[in-house]
Amino acid sequence: MALSLDGLPETPAPAEAAPAPVGRRVRASLVFARGGGTTVLSRQNVPYPFHITRAFRMHPGSPDLATLYLQSASGGLYAADHLTLDVAARTGARVHVTTQAGTVVHRGGPEPTRQETRLTIAADAFLALNPDPLILFPDAHLAISTEITAEPGARAIVTESVACHDPLGQGRPFDRLDLGLTIRTPEGRALVRERSRIDGAAFTGPDSPMGGHRAYGTMVVLGAPDDARLAGPLLRQASDAAGCLTGVSPLPNGAGLGLRLLAPDGGALSAGMEALFRILFAALSGCEPGRRRK
């Protein structure tokens, strides 16, 4: 027992709680507009760890359609990070935003790693946001939130996918995954609101609602035309050929089309997502997607 200077027993100081992890709080924004007969990146704020390339023209039949790669300069997402991406497509803009590779989500803590995406799509604009999968490392604790505000006549393809990976090959699960999607009108009326949560042990366990699948993806389609290529059986056939289990259904309140994919691993999921994306992109943009260099 410690003694004070006056010889009386000293009351131990209460143990201090461990400080909560402090991650990065970063917001990036991209604004695409119509100018000079094409789509231009009219405004950008891209702080670290976000990084972008210049806008590429990868569609000879549609030179006004811009393709931009969004990159991470930090090697992935870390504990307690809170990264927000705002993307706006103004009237007449036609843009495809993608990534160069999957993004690793590292081990987390009590506070989740947060990735928020806010999309604003004007009438007569086309936005395809098609990132590669988020790769959940053991003990990753990730919360994903996507909010889409779309004017009538807006067209969009928004994809999201996750896969598990243990670098040691021991099958260790991630900690927890939270998913959120909201689609609103410009007046703020919610057309779609979806929330889900699953912990890693349930995701990978023998009684997993995923069955034997270990990768998951979603696709949201707004402003889809009446096109035979978008029939549910044809879309399912395209992704099933890549080894995925696929569901296609209309979104509530006539908001659009929703697709969900299950796959045994990230490779099969990427192949299935890519097969569907090519069909959807052609139907909504009027041109075949260019080959992405990765």
From TrEMBL:
It comes from the Bacteria. It is found in: Cytoplasm. Pfam families: UreD. The keyword Ligase does not apply. Residues 1-20 are annotated as: Disordered. The keyword Repressor does not apply. Keywords: Chaperone, Cytoplasm, Nickel insertion. Coiled coil: none annotated. Residues 9-20 have a biased composition (Low complexity). Belongs to the UreD family. Required for maturation of urease via the functional incorporation of the urease nickel metallocenter. UreD, UreF and UreG form a complex that acts as a GTP-hydrolysis-dependent molecular chaperone, activating the urease apoprotein by helping to assemble the nickel containing metallocenter of UreC. The UreE protein probably delivers the nickel. PANTHER family: UREASE ACCESSORY PROTEIN D (PTHR33643:SF1). This is Urease accessory protein UreD. It comes from Methylorubrum podarium. The gene is ureD.
